[in-house]
Design brief:
5 helices, alpha+beta
Length: about 260
Amino acid sequence: MGHDHEGQRVSRRRLIAGISSLGLGAVLSAPGARAGAASRPPTADLTSLFARSRVCGLTPAATQGPYYFDADKIRSDIREDKPGVRLRVGIRVQDSETCSPMSNAVVEIWHCDAAGLYSGAEKESQDDATSGPPPGGFTDKAVMSDMKPSDAKRYLRGAQVTNGDGIVEFMTNWPGWYPGRTVHIHTMVHFSDWRVLNTQIMFDEALNSKVLATPPYATHTGRDTFNSGDNIFRDGMLLRVVEDGDGYLGTIILSADSDRDGG
C-alpha cells in the first residue's frame, strides 16, 4: 500500500470518528513554565493556555521510525493492559503559516512500552533491542516505509480527530526506551487526505530519570541514549509536563504545513 494511499485511508476515518472533545480542565498555571514538572497544581483552562502560547513556525520533522502502520484505532485511551506511569497528552495542531487551529485533522501517536517493545512489531523491536542501533545511529533524515504488522497487538497506538480548537487528548503511559534513542512518542498528523507532519515528542530528562526508576521501567536497565546524545532530539519537541494525580499531564503545540508548500 503506497504512502499517499495509506495517508488517505487514515484521514477518511474522520467520517465515523466524529470530532474529538477534551476533558482536560487545567494545565500549566505558571506563565512561561518550562518543560518539566510544575511546582503547583495546574489551574488554567487548556484551550485558553494554548491560545496564549505564541508558538508558530513549522514543528521540527522527524522520521516516522521503522514501526509505523495504520493501527485502525480511533480512540483516546491507548493503554490496554500495559503497565506504566499514567500520562495524559493534550496536543493542539495549528497551521504553520497562519497559526490558526486545524480542526478535523487526524493525529496518530505510537510508542514503545516500558520494556522498549512496540505492539504489532514485538519481534522486530526485541531484535533491534538486542542488536543495538543501526550504524551511524538513528537520524531525522532516515526514509522509512510503513511496516506490515507481525503480531495482532495494538497497545500504545491510536488516533484522534482534532476539535474546533485543533485539540486532541490521549491517555497513555510514559514511554520506555530502547538502545540508541532517547524516550519519545512518535506523532503523525493527517490533513485533507495527506500526511502533513511526522514528528516526535520528547521529555525533560529529570522526569525521565524519575519515572524510569520506578516499576515496571526499573527492570529495563542500561539506558544508553539521553536527549543530549539523541540525533533526532530538538528543543521544540519537548512536552510541557505537570503532575496529575498519580501520573502526569503534558501538552504540546504542533505546527503543520497544511497545504504542503514547505511553509
